[in-house]
Design brief:
This protein has 161 residues and is an alpha+beta fold. It is 23% helix and 29% strand. Strands 1, 2, 3, 4, 5 and 10 form a 6-stranded antiparallel beta sheet that branches. A two-stranded antiparallel sheet has the order 6-7. The longest helix is centred in the middle third of the chain and has 14 residues. The model has no long low-confidence stretch (mean pLDDT 92).
Amino acid sequence: MDQPGTLAWIGIGGNLGDARATVEQAIVRLAHLPHSGLLRSSSLYRTAPIDSSGDDYVNAVALLRTTLAPLELLYALQAIELQHGRERPYRNAPRTLDLDVLMYGNGSIASTELTVPHPRMAQRAFVLVPMLEIDETVEIPGLGPARGLLTAITDQPISRL
């Protein structure tokens, strides 16, 4: 029997402080998120900043099953970010922790606070590679199979830690 809830894909990253430890701690926090269960998390990956500066990022992706509504999930993720010292001084600033709702079920959301699927996820190796590690057949609503999107971003170096 299927468990109640919606599948939610979460992007995880950081490049300030001990980014590896922060990403690992974030995965643990996601596993304890109320009304949610962590189904899988990817390996950790190192990537260079895109449209930004600073140290390399440590990234991962997690797959949750949650009964939280999309905005409740977003707010819960933002609370975890704040607990890790996240600041937002400007767009694409280096960060201690970034948690993004990449996909929420098979739907699309376009509000002032949340856009799902994440608008740039198909252009980011640090999202697609970890997602495909979790599920080789994952499809992005409106874009199709994630595997087919990799050919457009082969210029983005990514390495498993």
